[in-house]
Write the structure tokens for this entry.
Amino acid sequence: MRLFLYRRCGYHIGTQAYIAEGLTIAEKLEDRGNVIIGNRAAIGPNVILLSSSDPNNSWIYPYVNVQRGKVTIGDDAWIGAGAIIMPDVYVGAGAVVGAGSVVTKDVAAYTIVAGVPARKIGDVNMNENIA
């Protein structure tokens, strides 16, 4: 039901994607369509995807950097619980974002990142035989 509702809101969500409870998508209405979630991607609980980050009507608006941009989660990527993905970030296919991480830069395919800010801590090894 969650996927159906997100799709009805205009978000592109691939087939067999999983979205846990508490996903927050922060965007400006004029930026609708800037969040893309790939096929079989897994989004953990309480994840935040930001396609827009600014102080809105605050008087400081002219004096700070406003961030806007597409957020793309690639096919088969896994976003851990409570992670925050900032605007204009691409998370590559098969990448893993650790729980509680803040992703400020693109994540290469099949890379594991974690921390605040998120940094590479390993690779997804597709050649390992898992029993």
